[in-house]
Amino acid sequence: MLLFPCLALGIYLGSLGLLNLIVLVTLFSSLVILWLCLAYRGRALGGLLFAPVVIIGMLLVGYLSGLPEKAWVTPKEGDFTGRIYQVQDLSFDQRVLVRLSSTRQQVAVHLPLEATPRVGDAIAFTGTISQPREAPNPGVFCYRQYLRTLGIFGVCYPDIYQVQAPARAGILTSLRTWLRSNILTHLQDPGLVLALVLGQRDQLGQERQETWRRLGISHLLAISGMHVGFVALGLGFVVRRLPLSALTKLVVIQGTLLAYIIVAGSGSSAWRALLISMLGGYATLQGHRQDPLHLWATVGWVLLLIKPTLVFDTGFTLSFAASGGILLWSPVLKANYWCKNRIIGYVAQSLAISIIAQLSLAPLLLGYFGEIAILGPLATLAFLPFVVVLMIGGMVVAVGLGSLGVGALLNGVMHLMGALETMLLHLAVQWSHGSWAQTEVYLWWFLFIYAGWRLRRPRLTKPKRTIAKLITITVVLLFLTCLPPVLRRPLEVTALNVGQGDCYFVRTPSGLHLLIDGGGDSPYWQERGRNVGEERVVPYLQHRQVSRIDYVIVSHHHEDHLFGLLAVLEHFDVGMVIDNGHDHTSPTYERYIELVAEKDISYHVARAGDRLKLGDGITLHVLYPELLRPNLPSAHNNNSLLLRLEYGGVRLLFTGDLENAVLYDLAHDLRYDLGAEWLKVPHHGSRGSFLEDFYEAVDPNWAVISVGSNSFGHPHDEVVDFLDKSKITWRTTQEAPQTFHVWWGLWGRFTSP
Cα torsion for 712, 715, 719, 725, to the nearest 10°? Predict the structure, then answer.
C-alpha cells in the first residue's frame, strides 16, 4: 500500500529535478545488494531494509518517468499543423488543446473568441510556441502548473491561424451533442444536470458555483467515484436479474461504466472508481478477498505509470486522498458504534464518512484553497439525495425521454435545491488555519492517518496499547501546538515579486501583519493596463490567509511603491497607514488619500525617532527623515522612509529608494546607527544609490534587491560585484519572492529558493 504514495513522491521530486540519476542508481543498487546478502544469510535485518529499497526504487522511477524541466519546450517559431482535442472558452479568448502532426506534442493555442473551433477540427497556425508563464508569487494562478496537469508543455498565441472542420463529425462528438441538446430542450435551468451527467459546466453560473464552494459541496459537481458508484449500483440492480452468467454480467456492467466515463469526458476520480470496480468485481468473481485499500493503491500505481502528470492534477490528488482516508478508516466506520436504530445509524455513519473524507483532505484544501468549509459534511448529506435524483433523471432526459414528465420533475427538484442553498448559505463558515503554521496542520494530519492505520489492525495490536499510544501522541501535539507563538514561529519578511517595484510582507510570530509598499505600474517600464495589486499582491495575501493588515507603510509615493496598495486598501481591513507625508500630484496618490478617508483608516506621518512596538520583542524604528527636504534632487526618492526592524539581536533595514546624496549623510552622521544583518538594497540596486561607505556602515550579511524587467540596467553590475566581493548573500525578486526568517531573535536565514 505504501508503494503508491512513494511512487507519487518520486514523480513529484523527479519533476523538480531534485534527484541526481547517478546517485539514485548507485544508492538503489547498493541497497539491493546489501538486502540480498543479508537475506541470503537469514538476517532479519534484510527484511527491514526492503522498505528503503522500495522507496529509493520509487524515487528512481519518479525520476525516469517524471517531468524534469527539459520536458518544457524550447521556444520555437514557425508554421504548425495539428488536430484539436479540447476547446475551452476563457474570459478574453479561447484555449484549444492541439496535438501537433509532426511531433505529436501537445500544445495550448489561444484563439480569439470569435473563432469557432470544435473538437476534431484540423488547425494550421503560425507563431511561436513557448513555455507558459509561472506564477510570480504563491497564491497567484500558475498557468504553467495548470497546463502541466493536462500534459501540455507549450503555449502559442498565433499571428495567423486557420481551422478546418472534418468532413463529418465523429461518433463521440455527435453523441455528446445529441445528449446535450436533449437536456437543454427539456430543462429550464440545465446547468446542474449538464454538470452532473455530462461534466459540462458552461451553463452553470458563477454565483451557483461560488455558493456550492462556500457550502463545501463542489465535489458533487464533478463526475467522480460517487457518480460512477451510483451508476454501477443502478446497473447492478437491473443486470443481476438478467439470465446471464456472472462473468457476462460483470462485463456488461463494467463496459457500460466505461462507455459512460468516455462520453462524459470524466477525470481521474471516475477512472479510479472504474478500475477499482473492475479489479474488485473480478476478484470477487474468482473468489478472492481483497483489501479495498490495496486495490486503491494498485489503481493509483497504474494511473501514475500510464500518466505521471496526474501527480500535479488537483482532482487526482483530492480524489485519492479522500477515498484513501475513507478506506483507511473503513473498519472503524463499519463497527457497530453508531446506533441500534437502522435509519439513525445509517445517517450517522454517512455523516462520519463525510467528516473522514474532509479530514483526509484538510492540508490539501488549505494548501489549494486556503480554507475548509465547516458545513461541508452536513451539506453533502443534505444535497446528496437531490444530486442522485438529478443524475438519474438527467440520464433519462439525455437519452430522449424528457417528454415523459421527467423534465418537469427535475425542474421542481432544482427549485427545492435553490431554496436549500439559500437557507444553508447563511450558516456557511470557512475555516483557515489562522495562527497555526502549515507544518502544525500536517502534524495533526499525520496523527489522523496514523490513528486510522493503528485502529484498523485490532488483531495485530492490542486495543488498550493503541489507545494509550494515540492519547500520548495527541497530548504531545497539543503541548507543541499550544506553546507561545514566539517559540513556534519565526518573524517572516517576504519580498514579493511585483516586477520593477517594492513590496515587503512582514508577519510576526503572533500573527501581526505589515505591508511595506505595494509595487505598482508605470507606463515607462511595465506592461500597460496591468494591476499588480489585484494580480500579484492581493492573491498572495489571500493565499497567506491574511484577513487584516495591521500596518500599511508607504516608503514614498512613486507608482512602483504605491499603486499596488490601492487594491490592498480596497480588499482588506487595514489598521493604520503610515507614510512620510510628502504629497504627490499623481492620480494614484489622490485615490490613495480618498481610500484612507473613505475607509476611516488611522493615518500617521512618520518621522525619525518614531517607534512601533509589534509585540514578541519586535520593534520598528523610523530612522529618517527628521523633516521633509523637498528641495533635494529626486525629492520623493530621497525623502523615503528609512526603517529598521529589530527582533532580539537581529536587525533588518528598509531603505526605500534613497540615493547617494542622502546615503552619504546617513553613513557619516554618528547619530544614525545603521548596523543591520539584513538589507533591502536601495533603489532596486541602481548605480545612483550605490555608496560603499553606506554598505560599510550597515555591514549586512544578507541583502534583497527588489527588481523586475526594466530598461535602467537594475541591478547595476557595480552593485552586484560589490555584494559578491563583500560575501553578502543576496537575492532578487525578479523570478520569485524571497523570504527571510528570523528565529527567536537570535539568527536568520533565507528560506525561499
Answer: -150
3-state secondary structure of 416: helix
Q: How far apart are CA 360 and CA 324, in angstroms?
A: 8
**Quick check: 685 and 707 in contact, CB under 8 A?**
yes
537-546 pLDDT, tens per residue? 999 998 888 9
Ramachandran class of 287: left when φ > 0, alpha when ψ lies in -120 to 50, beta otherwise: left
pLDDT for position 568: 96
Q: What is the mean pLDDT of residues 326-347?
A: 73
| Distances 425 to 212, 214, 379, 414 between C-alpha atoms, Å | 9, 7, 10, 16
What confidence score (pLDDT) does residue 18 get? 54
Close Cβ partners of 286 (under 8 Å, ≥ 6 residues apart):
none
C-alpha cell at 4: 503508491
Residue 746: what are its φ and ψ, rounded to 5°?
-105, -40
pTM of structure: 0.81
Instruction: Report helix, strand or coil for 711.
Output: coil
Closest CA to 510 of 534, 491, 535: 491
The cell 454480467 sits on which residue?
A: 249
Burial class (CB in 10 A: 0-12, 13-18, 19+), 425: middle
Q: How does pLDDT run across 464-520, given as a tens digit for each residue? A: 778 888 899 999 999 988 888 898 899 999 999 998 899 999 999 999 999 999 998
Q: Please, what is the end-to-end C-alpha distance for the chain in angstroms?
A: 33
Quick one: 487-750 is in which CATH superfamily?
Ribonuclease Z/Hydroxyacylglutathione hydrolase-like (3.60.15.10)
Considering the domain 72-167 in this protein, what is its CATH number?
A: 2.40.50.140
CA Rg value for the chain: 30
Q: What is the DSSP-derived secondary structure letter of residue 751?
A: -
pLDDT tens, position by position, 26-57: 666 666 666 666 665 655 454 455 555 455 55
- On the 0-12 / 13-18 / 19+ scale of CB atoms within 10 A, 684 is buried
Nearest-angstrom CA–CA distance, 490 and 656: 24
Residues 435/485, Cβ–Cβ less than 8 Å: yes
Specify the range with the lowest mean pLDDT, choosing from 330-344, 384-398, 581-595, 685-699: 330-344
User: What's the half-sphere exposure (Cβ side, CA atoms, 13 Å) at 229?
Assistant: 11
**C-alpha triplet 641, 646, 650: angle, nearest 5°:** 125
Ranked by mean pLDDT, the top range of 37-41, 84-88, 434-438, 592-596 is 592-596
How many CB atoms are located within 10 Å of the residue 275 CB? 18
Domain positions in the chain are 3-68, 72-167, 438-482, 487-750
Instruction: Look at residues 691, 689, 684, 686 and name the one whose alpha carbon lies nearest to residue 733.
Output: 684
Fold agreement between 72-167 and 487-750: no
State the CB neighbour count (10 A cutoff) for residue 696.
11
What percentage of the chain has pLDDT greater than the value 70? 87
- Is there a contact between 550 and 590 (Cβ–Cβ < 8 Å)? no
Contact 281, 230 (CB under 8 A): no
The three-state secondary structure class of 621 is: strand
Q: How far apart are CA 572 and CA 296, in angstroms?
A: 43
Per-residue pLDDT of 89-113, as tens digits, reads 787 889 999 999 888 888 999 999 8
Whole-angstrom Cα distance, residue 341 to residue 241? 30
Cβ neighbours of residue 155 under 8 Å, at least 6 residues apart?
107, 108, 109, 110, 129, 130, 131, 132, 143, 147
pLDDT at 169: 65
What pLDDT score was predicted for residue 226? 75
Phi, psi of 749, rounded to the nearest 5 degrees: -165, 155
What secondary structure letter does DSSP report for 112?
A: -
